[in-house]
Design brief:
The protein is an all-alpha fold. It has 4 helices and no strands.
Length: about 80
């Protein structure tokens, strides 16, 4: 069996980290913000989460507005 390519291992690692973040994030928008803080771009975040770039953009803009108002993100299930 051939060894996995380096990119395959990197992609697998990224996807596992996203799964871990999903368990700790309060919401999908919280997850989007954390991935963005980690340096992922909107297109890559959308790809990893199976959503659209527009949805990622909206979540980041709402988070930015909340931050500028000093509000905290809503907890999961609110």
């Amino acid at each position: 069996m051939p060894a996995p390519k380096k990119m395959d291992l990197q992609e697998e690692t990224v996807r596992l980290l996203v799964l871990q973040l999903r368990q700790t994030a309060d919401s999908q928008s919280g997850l989007i913000v954390e991935l963005n803080r980690a340096g992922f771009g909107q297109t890559r975040i959308a790809e990893l989460l199976g959503t659209t770039q527009n949805a990622v953009n909206v979540a980041l803009n709402k988070a930015k507005k909340r931050q500028s108002k000093g509000a905290r993100p809503k907890p999961k299930g609110s």
